[in-house]
Give the backbone structure.
Amino acid sequence: MKKRFLFILFFLFVSANVLFAQTKVSGIVVDKTNQPIPFANVVFKDSNEGVVSNEDGRFYIESAKTYTVIVISSVGFSEKEITLNKLVNYNFKIQLNEAESLKEVVIFTGKTSKKNNPALDILREIWEHKRKNGLNLFAQYQMEKYEKVEFDMNTIDSAFMKNKLFKGMEFIFNQVDTSKITGKTYLPIFINESLYDVYGDNKLKKVKEKMKASKTSGFEGNQQILTFVKDLYSDYNIYENHLTFFDKSFTSPLSTTGVDVYNYVLRDSAVVDKKWCYNIIFYPRRKNELTFKGDFWVNDSTFAIKKINMAVTKSANINWIKDIYLEQEFEVMNDSIFLLTRDYMMSDFALNKKEKSKGLYGKRTSFYRNHEFNKEKSVSFYKEEVNYVDKSVYEKSDDFWHENRFENLSKDELGVYKMLDTLKTVRKFKQISSSVMVLASGYVQFGHIDYGPVFSTFGYNEVEGVRLRSGARTYFGTADTWRLQGYTAYGFKDDKFKYGFSGKWMVDKKNRLILSGGNRRDIEQIGSSLTSSTDVLGRSNASSTIFSSGNNGKLTNINLSTVALEIEPVKNLTFQTGFSYRTLESASPTFSLDYYTDAAQTITKSDVKQSEFNLRVSYTPKRKTIGFAVERDVVSSPFTEIFVNYSHGFKGLLNSDFKYEKIQLYYKQPIIIGPLGRSDIILEVGKTFGTIPLGLMSVIPGNQTFFTNENAFSNLNYYEFISDQYTTLQWNHNFQGRFFSRIPFMRKLNWREIIGVKGVYGTISDANRAINASGLTYNAPDNVYWEYHAGIGNIFKVFRIDFAWRGSYLNTPDTNRFSVKGSFGFFF
């Protein structure tokens, strides 16, 4: 998620009208005291085309047709008609007068009644019929899909065009256009078109999309940009109670709980495409909630939606996005079946929600046609390809696209393609593209070598003092089948160099059969995570944080070598087996890993040599990835994570010291609870069979940094609890501002409430206690250690603070009963 925000913010910091439509109108609706009238209805007279003003009373309406009158209405006010003297009319100030009689009142804004409201009667019919509409009527279905995704810098003005950033690229401003939604000027910088065959089975609850063609212009080949595009939009069904966008759950205007958060008004009825339909307006009952404003047309007999337009309200508690606008259109087949034929979504990313702030539009338009039904496919047909890519999909000719697009590109859109293709040859643009790559990936590209990650350059701990790190990797493109990478680091206090290197080779693309290996000599805070890791280049924040609470000198010198084999025979089901050899010894004179080697406890040893076989099975249903390279990026939408890890330690092999077996289970389940936010439940279970020293024990992870760490206990010090078998359970919940939004003086802060609790139970065998010669007293959480926390997120949009309280072991000396942690991040 962090990568995509860096991408957005880059364009926001660097971020003439061409007329397509015949009629354009913008302005503000006010009362006689010049106070804005929110959610006023603005329509072209004698038409189905209309919009709802925002919370500030502002509106923009556009039509491809020619109109000469607009009609404005609102509750308690007389309806008003405004004559348009020309086709383009900007910055109208329209004053409505209070109604003189009940006959003049148009019930549209303010709280609407939940009783005797004809709009609610229609809404209940929609609920009753929603399972009998559209694709749900058929056992199987298939269709063609055309999708166009575009990114545009918006609010282009003369000062923006004269910015030195665009010197040598002035020709791009010949493609400035005007948004039909907001009326703002914009400049396209990225376009992607794709064609799919879509298959679905309602009985199996399976859907498969097969890409037939794809074409991109502007930043193509950049893995992070493509990841962002994939991550930006999710499919949705307007009939569902809640719609998820940008990891936030919005209440649908068609939700069965909608009457509690929306006002509904029956505004009109008319024939739409030969079907009699009702027009219903909706807008939120309260500010700051994740809701929409807009209207829909619904058929009077099937109660299927014919057309819906909706926009997220400005006061909604969501960051970096000024506007989200959605349209869906349905066509009638066989007199009664309404099928989705057009889906449009536009997001306006901006640093703030001020009207004139510059930003970045992200737009997706999808068209559907050639529907066929009840053609059954086998279960195996819906099996997802793990890593299949057909290069011919990306090599279609211009003639192919001209014949197969669902709608022809306009002359201006074709001009955009030409402009972007020319732009790629401009040196200045290449420099901008490289800057985006650095911000998104953390690497600086030099030919086929990437330097970085730059964010890991500096660190500090008690043993190394100030630590500097430099690294690099190979990079030939988004489909690399092999990769080499490495780093070197130097500690100014211990005066030692450290290093690590690794290599990966994808032998079989179809099943992602990957061979890997590497070596690392470094200093590590072992026990910062319960789950074993064979990542030879991994390093925890605990061993390199700049600031810490208490001593963070319990560090270990580690020399780790690994070889591994990984395969993904089924999408998101991965098997990995490997062999590792490591040596461990204390990195500090104040910390010991000593253990007894004889029963009489007279002989001690301070280092550990250990060879280990490892088998791991991981399952991540609904995880989405981008790219086909040996290393892929993961789309950050929440998904379930499950893995089981089995390890066997050999004694004698390569002079290894111990024989043991270890099994671990990790399970993480995100749960979106509609308007109440999102929960994450995490369970970890592990047990070691055999006698092992401190360096191989399961250390309950503490957190002596000042930063929040989901996988560690905020009030535990390093090595405070040790175990050889353990069970941890934690629950974290983010209410997304649900309650703060109802407190008047806190509403504008857009803070978000966070609560959670985590606990651990563990024990240590007598044999493992007996060989301990480290001087560290073994304490296991056999009475259950637990703590709870409450926090506030979204402070200044980037900061989160957590307050954590210890719930047990309150009388343990030299420990924390309470702590305050913080974290930074860019979140929607």
